[in-house]
Design a protein that fits this description.
- This protein starts with 35 loop residues before the first strand and ends in a 5-residue tail after the last strand.
- The chain has helices at residues 39-45, 49-52, 85-98, 114-126, 131-134, 183-197, and strands at residues 36-37, 46-48, 57-58, 82-84, 103-109, 149-156, 202-203, 210-212, 220-221.
- The protein has a single domain (36-220), classed as Muramoyl-pentapeptide Carboxypeptidase, domain 2 (2-Layer Sandwich), CATH 3.30.1380.
- A hairpin with a 6-residue loop joins strand 7 (202-203) and strand 8 (210-212).
- The radius of gyration is 17 Å and the shape is globular.
- With 226 residues, the chain is α/β, with parallel strands linked by helices.
Length: 226
């Protein structure tokens, strides 16, 4: 990587304070017109989450047909979850804190190539679901592209079974809003939320599974996942 390489960064700093309960967190959208960093830069800044803790389970939905589009998304070539190194280290601490409680993290999505986000937007146009963009369920500029967002759930460490969360991953309705659950699902959503927030992650209140992390001067990436 040439030392002289420079980017014009217009990223707006996100709030760093941990949100209080019932406070709405802004949608997981990066509105800055940030250049896409070369793959060589991505390789220095992104880390495989299973390299920081191999016990984290990865089920990368967009690398398969098991997602809302019904097909693998461009750029997803392997079942490998990447994050910015800072976020990866924080996620490892979450996993460390969960293990004594008999719980583990299961990751559905983490870093997402820009081309995959564009494919999601194209899908909404093909199926006439532009409401999903308007309502904040799909982002045209996602923090996943920065390696700073992750979609995940909790599983039983012994059985590997997912804990009851009330809705499946990628449910596009108010039932998926973090606060919109009762009984066991509400308890489990709060378990996940407390564990993630303790290590600096912020929950997006319209999706119980979605968390983001802040670093200074974030960059967008389009490096394929392989």
């Amino acid at each position: 990587m040439r030392k002289s390489f420079a980017f014009t960064l217009l990223a707006i700093a996100l709030a760093c304070a941990t949100p209080q309960r019932n406070v709405t967190v802004a949608p997981p959208v990066n509105t800055a017109e940030t250049e896409i960093a070369p793959d060589a830069v991505a390789d220095t800044l992104l880390v495989n989450v299973q390299s920081v803790d191999p016990t984290i389970v990865v089920d990368l939905r967009y690398a398969t047909a098991n997602n809302f589009t019904g097909a693998p998304l461009p750029g997803y070539q392997a079942n490998q979850a990447y994050l910015r190194r800072e976020a990866g280290a924080a996620l490892a601490r979450v996993q460390r804190d969960l293990k004594p409680r008999g719980l583990s993290l299961k990751v559905f999505d983490a870093y997402r190539p820009v081309r995959a986000t564009l494919a999601m937007v194209d899908w909404t146009e093909r199926v006439h679901r532009s409401d999903l963009l308007k309502d904040g369920y799909i982002a045209s500029r996602s923090r996943h592209n920065l390696g700073l967002a992750i979609d995940l759930t909790l599983i039983d460490l012994v059985t590997g079974q997912e804990l009851e969360m009330g809705t499946p991953f990628d449910t596009f309705s108010a039932a998926a809003h973090t606060a919109n659950a009762g009984g066991l699902a509400a308890v489990n959503r709060q378990k996940l939320k407390a564990a993630m927030e303790a290590e600096g992650f912020l929950n997006y209140d319209q999706e119980w599974w979605h968390y983001s992390f802040n670093v200074p001067n974030p960059l967008r990436f389009d490096r394929p996942i392989r």
